[in-house]
Amino acid sequence: MTKAVRFYETGGPEVMQWEDVEVGAPGAGEVRLRHSAVGLNFIDVYFRTGLYPAPLPNGLGMEGAGVIEALGDGVSGLAVGDRVAYAGRPIGAYAEVRVMPADGLIKIPDSIDDQTAAAMMLQGMTTEYLLQRTFPVKKGDTILFHAAAGGVGLMACQWARHVGATLIGTVGSDEKAALAKANGAAHTINYRTENFTDRVREITDGKGVPVVYDAIGKDTFEGSLDCLSPRGLMVSFGNSSGPVENVNLAILGAKGSVYVTRPSLMDYNANRADLEKSASDLIRMVESGAVTVNIGQTYPLSEVRKAHEDLEGRKTTGSTVFTL
User: Fold this and answer.
1) Which of 171, 204, 265, 297 is least enclosed, having the fewest CB within 10 Å?
2) Which sequence ranges are marked TM in the entry (predicted)?
3) Residues 6 and 81 in one domain
């Protein structure tokens, strides 16, 4: 027997149970993986609350790192004892041991430790596709990134600085502003004390920005549109404040013929070639020191409820890792 987090109904952190589970042998194309560390991401909250539907009962978690214990039939390119990490479906990373598809695993070099590997995959590959593929950020660009002191935000600050872009980051406290600036944000806006739309217009001399990256959702959606320059792109890749609903498309024309996209990592890395390229680019950035993975806090996996409470209460910074 081994331990895992399960939930039988949707709701608050209290619905998660830390219990004994049976893990069988891997089937064709699968491996059995013993986790050494597991990442916490806001998408886990979406599944737990039912915002993103999943069959019940189920596990939680989409990111982890560990060592392969067994291989199923037909698995090639991997061996028992390999250190690997992953980010993506099927959910169920909150577990000491799990069986999962081999084609979602990435080998981790010795230069990257287990906790860093668990913390960097989902947030790091999200940063990669946002800044390299959704809107290819280049030297001289000025961009707006909400939640700049979060896990994706801090990586985006560093990535933007590396390519020579100016990142304006919104944060919820002076402490988070200092953290974002230390990681490369050129400007920070405390949304609790300042109007971020007015400040963006002030910083850009009224021009606005060509792209806004927004994982907040309904609380920032319309203000984000007002930050865009004509024909700019609003990238809505999360909804920590709730989903954006009942949008009148005519507003996009009224605000300068702007665009909106709602991308996901799973679509951008849907095939193996894209996954390998995304992970390779991320690993190269981390190994070179251009991007440092900021692990702001760790929790034993058995304390999963406390971790979710802190995440939803905006008490966390950077990446969060569960230890086993």
Assistant:
1) 297
2) none
3) yes
